[in-house]
Amino acid sequence: MIRGKGFRIAVVVLLVVVSLVLSTIVAMRQETAMLLPAPEERPPFRVDFTLPDVQGHLVRLADLRGRPVLINIWATWCYPCREEMPSMNALYKDYGVKGLAMLAIATDTGGKPVVAPFLQAYGLTFPVLLDPQNMVGTQLQVSGLPTSYLLDKRGRVTDVVIGARDWNSRQIRHLIEQLLMEAGGGTTP
Questions:
Q1: Does the predicted TM-score (pTM) go above 0.90?
Q2: Closest CA to 92 of 63, 57, 67, 127
Q3: Contact 54/128 with Cβ under 8 angstroms?
Q4: Which of 153, 152, 170, 132 is nearest to 51 (CA)?
Q5: In this predicted model, what pLDDT tens digit does every residue of 24-82 receive, in sequence order?
Q6: 84: which of 31, 41, 99, 164 fits an S-S bond (Cβ 3.0–4.6 Å)?
Q7: Which ranges constitute the DSSP H helices of the chain?
Q8: What are 99-133's pLDDT values in tens digits?
Q9: 78 catalytic, yes or no?
Q10: What is the Cα–Cα distance from 122 to 109, expressed in whole angstroms?
Q11: What is the C-alpha to C-alpha distance for residues 163 and 46, in angstroms, rounded to an integer?
Q12: Which CATH superfamily is domain 39-181 in?
């Protein structure tokens, strides 16, 4: 077997090429656009709620029909919740004006005195609702925080996420753009 300088160079070059190919494949998989389930495969979101926002105004989910909605159930004490908040805020800044509705439901038992300073400290601009008794989370049988539901314009669930997510990723932005372009509104079929 030849173990000379040329052989070692060829092995190193081969390893570099294989490494580059594998890196490219991994990157392409991460960048692959997420697909929405077909409309007929989307179950309706069965929990209607009316909750106060931090300013005391009542917000009713049914009033947002005709817009895609991101519902996020969270708490200020939840580390993964805190981690995903900046990406949610960035998504809302870009897509709230284009029609995306976002409702972050804070389940802190302390209510507004706990949640309002948190929002200010993090500079969050999306609507935050107060649910100190966790009525919505209980009805949905939420098993962990954060839990998020992405709804289409007809109030059907396109995605459920348990745990933190980068809500400002290219994949999520692509999903939001798809939802914004879909026809819809009105009542759930």
A1: no
A2: 127
A3: yes
A4: 132
A5: 554 444 445 578 999 999 999 999 999 999 999 999 999 999 999 999 999 999 999 99
A6: 164
A7: 5-31, 79-95, 112-122, 135-140, 170-181
A8: 999 999 999 999 999 999 999 999 999 999 999 99
A9: no
A10: 20
A11: 21
A12: Glutaredoxin (3.40.30.10)
